[in-house]
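Hey L., structure's done. Input below.
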Amino acid sequence: MNSSRDLSWPLSVCVAAGRIVVGLLRLFKWRVVMLLLLAAVTGAFLGAGGWPGSEAVVVLLLAGGLAAAGASVVNEYLEFDMDRIMQRTRRRPLVTGAIVRSPWVLALGVALIVLPVLAVLPRNPALALWVILGAIVYVGVYTVWLKSRTPLNVVVGGLAGSCAVLSGGAAVHAWAHPAVSGLALLLFLWSPTHFWSLALACRGDYARANVPMLPVVTSPRRAAQWNLLHAAGSVIIGLLLAVRPELGLWYLAPVAIAGLYLLAHGLRLVEQSSARRAWQMFHAANLYLGVVLLAICLTTYFHV
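Output:
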């Protein structure tokens, strides 16, 4: 009997620790963080014209990843009441109580933003600038100011993704590189397509929470038309990036195919603006961006 108790105690500790880890990963919105880091690393590949160097990548991943996680924590802390209303967000750890919503959570989020910025500031002020600007756009401009006030919320909020790309360029001292700027523009145009597709699929959720997403304040068909317009802009920028000598045909081929796939789903969504097709558009937009970012990293790394 004593041996079974001895075994159950460490097992319960492991289970509790696992729940805390899962709760923290959800609090940090790890999927969003990974996407932003991929965009940032891609910006570094573009700025360097190939492998950016181990030191630049590690610094970028640490500074950008911690700041993005911190911004997510602050976002969830501030949107607690909204998250309790929406079906899509009711399983977030602050809502379920898996992590207690205390001032320490807010302090953790702020610290995760500020400390890495201060750490990189002396050696790379441009990197620190773009990292902190990305957090300010997401938390201050998008979450606090625009999200509950205007359907332009995700349009302006898309600048956070652009800041991630520019931080990658800054990590290799090339944030003003034309290709880096082009990718930042692509992220800016792509973000509304991503969020409006989600908002179309979860239109009732956003309406209940009084969030004026474009699909809530206008007809689904009109929202789908704007969605398609931004998708087309993203595809055009993605194709134009192929003129860079470090990219070329091996980049262009998969990106063109992914772009056609995205536009096809955009047209289908305009034709029938249902939740099912909105989800399909959402996944197509994610696939398109993933193809663009991976194609850039691979072609610049191998110089094919």
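The chain has one domain: 29-302. The CA atoms of residues 239 and 258 lie 11 Å apart.

-- N.
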